[in-house]
Specification:
With about 280 residues, the chain is mainly α. Helix content is about 70%, strand content about 0%. The protein contains 14 helices and two strands, in the order ααααββαααααααααα. Helix 3 runs antiparallel to helix 4, helix 7 packs antiparallel against helix 9 and helix 10 packs parallel to helix 14. The radius of gyration is 18 Å and the shape is globular.
């Protein structure tokens, strides 16, 4: 459903253009669609028909995909593979990949602003939240801190701060925005914000663990890249066993916050288990 909606949104653009082909290439490479799934799951905890949340969900995936295209660039992580396929700049070129990322970022906000199912107030609130989550107070700030932490020893608190911004902000947007669109009570939004805070950390710590223990075929990229790039990670700071223990602490706190909402028995609970134990 998400993939079909993304295709529909992309088909509004010039199909013959190199830019559109580059944008679509990274979507066609696959992925878990985690962020839009979290948004729809959060919405479904309060409402039945997800159509109202679909455009926002796909816009969120556009922003995530843009960030991956840029992350893979030589000036950033310099990766040749993403999800088992050559990265965008390897198939096209660096300039096209940069512009494809720029286009996905800006197009996401156009899609939300044009959504006929949302009120003007909802559009303003969602665009405000999403721009903050993805910009210099959110994901981009986290990416900058991550780059600055390379080849340095950071504390656990500093590492958490990086990932709360770099990974956690878009995950938090997904869950809070979904519940907001589903008319969740303010109390639930507060606890869901706390839940998503820890869920973002769970996602990242599992990524760090998989970079050591993961199967390259399942992950679609080489393991050990964090160590090669001298990145600060949970296993580097805590050791592998310590990282596993820290993950379990995050899981306990996430489930505790979720249990205080009407979404406690929703698909979000199952997704927490999935993110904790995923192998790619």
């Amino acid at each position: 459903m998400i993939n079909k909606r993304i295709e529909h949104q992309m088909n509004q653009l010039n199909k013959a253009s190199r830019l559109q082909k580059s944008m679509l290439y990274s979507f066609h490479a696959g992925g878990k669609r985690l962020r839009p799934i979290l948004l729809l799951a959060s919405y479904e905890a309060y409402q039945d028909n997800v159509e109202k949340a679909m455009v926002v969900a796909t816009a969120l995936e556009m922003i995530h995909t843009y960030s991956l295209i840029h992350d893979d660039l030589p000036a950033m992580d310099d990766d040749d593979l993403r999800r088992g396929q050559p990265t965008n700049h390897k198939v096209f070129d660096e300039a096209t990949a940069i512009l494809a990322g720029d286009a996905l970022l800006t197009y996401s906000f156009e899609c939300i602003s044009n959504d006929p199912l949302l009120s003007y107030e909802e559009k303003i609130k969602l665009i405000q939240w999403l721009s903050k989550a993805s910009g210099p107070k959110g994901m981009v700030a986290g990416q900058m801190l991550d780059l600055q932490a390379e080849k340095k020893v950071v504390t656990l608190k500093e590492l958490e701060d990086i990932h709360i911004l770099k990974t956690g902000q878009l995950i938090q947007f997904a869950i809070v925005a979904g519940a907001f669109l589903g008319d969740a009570p303010d109390k639930d939004l507060t606890y869901l914000k706390e839940y998503s805070y820890y869920l973002g950390l769970i996602f990242q710590i599992q990524d760090d663990i998989l970079d050591i223990t993961g199967d390259e075929d399942k992950m679609g990229k080489p393991t050990g890249s964090d160590e090669d790039n001298k990145k600060s990670t949970y296993p580097q700071i805590l050791g592998l066993e310590g990282a596993l223990k820290q993950k379990n602490e995050y899981v306990h706190k996430a489930k505790s916050a979720l249990s205080k909402t009407k979404a406690s028995e929703s698909y979000l609970h199952a997704l927490t288990e999935y993110l904790t134990e995923r192998d790619h």
